[in-house]
Design a protein that fits this description.
The complex is a heterotetramer, with two copies of chain A and two copies of chain B.
Chain A: H1 5-13, E1 21-24, H2 28-31, E2 43-46, E3 50-53, E4 76-82, H3 85-93, E5 99-102, E6 106-108, E7 113-114, H4 129-135, E8 139-142, E9 154-155, E10 170-172, E11 176-181, E12 184-190, H5 196-201, E13 207-215
Parallel strand pairs in A: 1-2, 1-5, 5-8, 6-9, 8-10, 12-13
Antiparallel strand pairs in A: 2-3, 3-4, 6-7, 10-11, 11-12
Chain B: H1 8-11, E1 20-23, H2 33-42, E2 47-50, H3 61-66, E3 70-75, H4 82-89, E4 94-97, H5 100-111, E5 116-119, E6 133-136, E7 139-145, E8 151-160, E9 165-166, H6 175-181, E10 184-193, E11 212-215
Parallel strand pairs in B: 1-2, 1-8, 2-3, 3-4, 8-10, 10-11
Antiparallel strand pairs in B: 5-7, 6-7, 8-9
The chains are: A alpha/beta, B alpha/beta.
Chain lengths: 218, 232, 218, 232
């Protein structure tokens, strides 16, 4: 059984380390916050100007002045701090954020990512994605392994306009976990019930199966 | 130092068609609602707006788009706006999409008197096309110019008559940089107080950057994504 | 009678306009604050991080955390604001300070200034002087017309290492007031009892006497 | 996020001879007194110190100079220090004098991940010697590199255990930039509080920049120029 979105998020949450500052993108990445392992303390950065993002507010307590980068109403936690957008991207650019998780349309086996523009469709903009992928030191992509037509999103070269180059360190899909190194995608884990053959079949980029490849444990 | 003007109409009175405006706010959070309304009333057009977003159809900069007042948007994200899309596709509106941190930092550069900055975002992508690149310590950077604008328009939580501003929560966002970058900076505030009422240690924008200040008549503060959790 | 230091400061204070943000250097410039004309409101910037500098504290009320750029204990005024050093020099560089007054060892008739280093003597550093003269849009020098040896400090070319080039707009000395334009020093006012001939004699740089030159009124 | 260490000695324990340190403070105002004392006790040497000033003979960085711990000072002003002068003239000490705003902005650049910035200060002077210049909009600028250092050491008024800092009055000065620029940043505070006790809207240095924090044992806070006025 391929992983659900929640399970992709749950697997990525295993990458969190105590003391990490983490930026979670919109979509599956946001769900990672629900699976922070016990005993691990992380602080969530929202690039519109908050460190220490808390959960959604209780109904009736929404504050229009307190939103995340997805424009959702949120709350703060003890130790939270607000800052301006230049400071926010300054700390990202200076490598102060330990882990960034974001979605993608395509990832190439050299670490390139495309996730902002589809030629012929209305382009809404890259928001903070280009800043994040250009500067973060540890970037995990959370996405489905294939698109709606069943084509691999793990490619030898992105076909869509790039968001960033040589920047992705790991991809977690519904089928498995893939580190990116000079040999391409290194499959270190597969989803329960998913075969290595299925992963090989559905991966277009260079793929290496780790000697000690194992089933994802959630 | 009394920077107080009577109201939004007075504050924007010399903004003319064809000018470049920088506007604070992220989505609909922290936008200068009253100044935008006054610009809509004024009916000027051919404006270039530097703002992270373009509002929604019936609020924020969306109201200026409805009035066909905007010639060009310089933004990082312009979703959530059907009229925007229509004008863009019909060629009535130009858009220059730039990374969010680059937008913030090009504004900051203007406020710090720096003509250009080297930034990482967009290296190797189409954003880099036509831009000078340079390597420092083995990394490639793009040279990005400071913004040049005629007016900056920001919204703060509290301000004093000398123009000192404080912002609330994530409504701070782009406002401090835009305020610093303006040749003429207009600040609208929810609460206008006397000099001395704000603690000098906790002012986000020093009054030296602010040329005109007024208390907004009312604030709708619309929420784009109302997300809540249930009480147990 | 040549002007005293206090009178030089008093004359410079006439240059203040309502609403000006002003940076006053150490020495004679500091005294300008004592002569702000009635009905004129100015705000003093201290480049270590304060706008709205007030007078010295009453005895017993000194606060080690509240000093000016000359490291003197000071006070705040209603509307004061503190900021960091990068912001302070950012506002100077961006031209937000309307008037800067500082002392000098030499000024050249093209607006060059030297005020930080004497070869052969221990060099203490330029502090914020180079930032101020490079970026401020309106800079007045307050100084004695001649040095201790009686030699002119208004020169055709500075002999000491420069602090900044083509930046000084006006010089007020004990002998007179001099605007700097493409023809050199334009003497627009002379001190009471000082003759134009004395000024000519004691000025080494190019000097033009204004047609409507008049006595300084204090 | 608990960044608390027991004391100054613990905070500086892995600072080694030959390293480059950035220190906050302007004159003796806002200097990290307790950390400096610990570095003096530790007896390391060959340090490069990036600090606006070099203290006075018997306080601040002057104490490190007495112990001959400093190989090089990078400062804007180094008066008020006879031992400094002696070591400089004897060739024991190097000094790199740079304009104060350039010092602040090179530190800021490091904190914002910008490798270099274009600044006006020093154009046409000996400060420009050997530096790349470039014209923007008819003005000449110098290319100035971001500082690279091993540790930053700052002093704040209050801090919480997550490393969030606030500074008091003009003791803020260089501290926020140094804090942002450090690979490892040590903050000493007059008052250490629990997370949540500082208002998130009024924090000067977000905790993400601070790696270690402790409450200083005592603060002498020496005044360099005690200037007062008489009561009427």
């Amino acid at each position: 059984m391929a992983l659900s979105k929640e399970q992709i998020a749950q697997r990525i949450a295993q990458e969190l380390q105590d003391g990490f500052y983490v930026n979670l993108g919109i979509g599956i990445p946001t769900l990672v916050a629900n699976y922070i392992p016990k005993g691990i303390e992380v602080e969530l950065q929202s690039e519109n100007g908050l460190l220490g993002m808390g959960p959604f507010p209780y109904e009736g307590e929404e504050d229009a002045d307190l939103i995340n980068a997805g424009k959702q109403t949120i709350t703060t936690l003890p130790g939270s701090v607000f800052f301006d957008s230049a400071t926010s991207f300054g700390m990202i650019r200076a490598g102060k954020v330990d882990l960034t998780v974001l979605g993608a349309m395509e990832v190439a086996d050299n670490g390139d990512i495309a996730n902002w523009k589809i030629p012929g469709k209305m382009v809404k903009g890259m928001g903070g994605a280009m800043d994040l992928v250009a500067a973060a030191k540890n970037i995990i992509v959370a996405m489905q392994h294939t698109n709606r037509s069943g084509e691999s999103k793990l490619l030898s070269k992105c076909t869509l306009p790039l968001t960033g180059v040589n920047c992705i360190t790991k991809v977690v899909t519904d089928l498995g976990v893939f580190e990116i190194n000079e040999n391409g995608f290194l499959c270190t884990e597969y989803a329960p019930g998913v075969t290595v053959d299925e992963i090989k079949e559905k991966t277009a980029g260079r793929l290496v199966i780790a000697d000690d490849v194992k089933e994802i444990q959630l | 130092m009394n920077k107080v003007v009577a109201n939004a109409d007075e504050a924007v009175k010399d903004i003319e068609s064809g000018m470049t405006l920088m506007l604070g706010g992220f989505g609909l959070c922290g936008i200068p609602e009253n100044s935008i309304a006054a610009i809509v009333r004024k009916g000027i057009n051919n404006l270039t707006c530097i703002s992270n977003n373009a509002g929604v159809d019936d609020f924020g900069i969306g109201l200026m788009l409805q009035g066909k007042q905007v010639k060009k948007m310089i933004s990082s994200y312009v979703g959530e706006n059907a009229e925007f899309e229509r004008q863009l596709l019909s060629g009535e509106l130009e858009v220059d999409l730039i990374p969010q941190g680059t937008l913030a930092t090009r504004a900051m550069a203007a406020g710090y008197g720096m003509p250009a900055v080297y930034l990482l975002a967009g290296v190797g992508t189409e954003v880099a096309e036509g831009k000078e690149t340079r390597e420092f310590n083995g990394k490639e950077y793009l040279l990005e110019e400071a913004f040049d604008s005629d007016f900056a328009i920001v919204k703060a939580w509290k301000g004093d008559k000398a123009g000192n501003l404080i912002y609330k929560d994530t409504a701070r966002n782009f406002n401090p940089m835009m305020a610093m970058a303006g040749k003429i900076t207009i600040a609208e505030v929810e609460e206008l107080v006397e000099p001395g009422e704000l603690d000098p240690n906790f002012i986000h924008t020093p009054g030296i950057y602010v040329h005109r200040i007024f208390q907004g008549e009312k604030y709708e503060k619309r929420i784009e994504q109302r997300t809540v959790r249930q009480r147990n």
